[in-house]
C-alpha cells in the first residue's frame, strides 16, 4: 500500500489544490484546469475503490472519500445564474416553453372560451333578455342603448390625467389577476369550476359584442377592444389551461401518486401564473393608456395586429424550443 500511495500522492495533492481553488471561485479555473480536475477526479475515484476493497487504512479511505466528494460537488455543481438572468431567461423562453408543453390543455381552454363567446353573442343578439341576464345592470352599455350612448362610453377617459390612468391600470390588473387566479386555483376541484369560469368569461364577451353589433360601431368597438384584449384574453385562456392542468392531475394522475402529479402540475401552473401576471400588467397598461387615447381606429387596429403577431411568434418560438429541448433533455428555464 505504501508504494500505491507514493505513486498516486502527487495526483491527490494536485486534485486537492484544484478543489481549494474551485471552492474560492470556480469561474477562475482555466479550461485546462477544469479538464484536469475532471481527469484527476476520475483517477482518484478509482484509487478510492481500490483502497476500499483491498486496503486496510481507514484514515486514507476517509481522506479519499472527502476528496472525491469535494471534487464531485464542483464538477456536477448546477450552473448558477443571477436572479435577473433567471428572470430574463424565463421571460424570453421559459414561459413560452411551459405553455407549449401543455398546449393541448390551453387549446381546450381556448375552445371553451370561444364557444362561450359565440353562444353569448348569438343568444344575446336574438334575445335581449339573455343579454340583460349576461351583462351587468350597472353598466351604461345596455341592450337597446343608442349609438350615441355606446360611443360615449367607448370614447370615455381619453382626456384623463396620467395619474388617473395609472390608478385605472392598477384596478384593471387587480381585477383581471383575481379572475385568472380563480380559474387556475379552482382546477383543484377537478377543473369543474375552471370550465365554468372560462365559458362564463366567453359569454360576457359575446354579450358585449352583441350589444355593440351596429353597422356604424363595429370597427370602433373592435379597435376599442383588441389592442389590450388580445393580451388580456390570451392571459385568461392560459389561466384556464393551467387550471385544467391541475384538474387533470387530480382526475388522471397516471402512474404516479395523485400528490406527485399535483406537485408536478403545480410547478408548471405556477410558472404559467408568473408569465400571466406579466401579460396582465401589459394588458392593463394598454387598456388604460392606449385605449383611452386619441389614436384613430386604424392606428388602434394596427397596434392590435402587432400584438397578435407578437404573441403568435412568442408562443410558436416556445413550441420550437420545447420540441428541441425534448430531444436534448434540457429543462425550461425557470425563475430561481
* Series of H and E elements: HHHHHHHHHHHH
Proportion of residues in helical segments = over 70%
DSSP summary: helix tally? 12
Low-pLDDT residue spans = none
Major sheet, described briefly?
none
Terminus-to-terminus distance: 47 Å
Number of strands: 0
Structural category is mainly alpha
Strand content: under 5%
Radius of gyration: 29 Å
Mass-distribution shape? elongated
The residue-averaged pLDDT reads: 88
Any idea how many domains? 2
Describe this structure in words.
It contains twelve helices and no strands. The chain is mainly alpha-helical. The protein folds into two domains: 2-75, no CATH class; 85-327, no CATH class. α2 runs antiparallel to α3 (58-75) and α8 packs parallel to α10. The longest helix is centred in the C-terminal third of the chain and has 34 residues, at 218-251. The radius of gyration is 29 Å and the shape is elongated.
Amino acid at each position: 500500500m505504501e508504494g500505491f500511495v507514493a505513486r498516486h500522492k502527487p495526483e491527490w495533492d494536485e486534485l486537492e489544490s484544484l478543489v481549494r481553488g474551485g471552492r474560492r471561485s470556480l469561474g477562475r479555473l482555466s479550461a485546462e484546469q477544469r479538464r484536469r480536475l475532471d481527469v484527476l477526479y476520475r483517477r482518484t475515484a478509482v484509487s478510492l475503490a481500490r483502497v476500499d476493497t483491498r486496503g486496510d487504512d481507514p484514515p486514507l479511505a476517509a481522506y479519499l472519500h472527502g476528496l472525491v466528494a469535494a471534487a464531485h460537488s464542483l464538477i456536477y455543481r448546477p450552473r448558477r445564474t443571477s436572479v435577473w438572468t433567471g428572470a430574463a431567461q424565463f421571460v424570453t423562453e421559459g414561459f413560452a416553453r411551459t405553455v407549449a408543453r401543455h398546449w393541448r390543455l390551453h387549446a381546450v381552454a381556448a375552445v371553451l372560451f370561444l364557444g362561450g363567446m359565440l353562444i353569448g353573442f348569438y343568444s344575446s343578439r336574438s334575445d335581449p333578455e339573455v343579454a340583460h341576464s349576461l351583462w351587468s345592470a350597472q353598466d351604461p352599455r345596455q341592450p337597446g342603448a343608442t349609438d350615441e350612448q355606446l360611443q360615449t362610453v367607448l370614447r370615455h377617459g381619453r382626456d384623463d390625467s396620467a395619474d388617473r390612468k395609472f390608478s385605472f391600470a392598477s384596478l384593471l390588473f387587480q381585477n383581471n389577476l383575481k379572475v385568472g387566479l380563480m380559474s387556475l386555483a379552482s382546477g383543484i376541484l377537478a377543473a369543474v369550476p375552471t370550465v365554468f369560469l372560462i365559458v362564463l368569461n366567453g359569454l360576457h364577451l359575446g354579450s358585449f359584442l352583441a350589444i355593440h353589433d351596429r353597422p356604424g360601431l363595429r370597427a370602433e368597438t373592435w379597435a376599442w377592444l383588441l389592442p389590450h384584449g388580445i393580451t388580456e384574453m390570451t392571459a385568461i385562456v392560459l389561466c384556464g389551461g393551467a387550471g385544467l392542468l391541475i384538474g387533470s392531475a387530480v382526475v388522471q394522475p397516471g402512474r404516479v401518486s395523485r400528490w406527485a402529479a399535483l406537485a408536478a402540475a403545480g410547478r408548471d401552473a405556477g410558472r404559467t401564473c408568473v408569465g400571466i401576471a406579466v401579460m396582465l400588467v401589459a394588458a392593463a397598461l394598454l387598456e388604460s393608456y392606449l385605449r383611452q387615447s386619441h389614436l384613430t381606429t386604424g392606428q388602434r387596429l394596427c397596434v392590435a395586429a402587432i400584438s397578435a403577431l407578437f404573441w403568435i411568434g412568442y408562443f410558436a418560438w416556445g413550441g420550437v424550443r420545447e420540441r428541441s429541448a425534448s430531444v436534448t433533455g434540457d429543462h425550461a428555464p425557470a425563475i430561481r
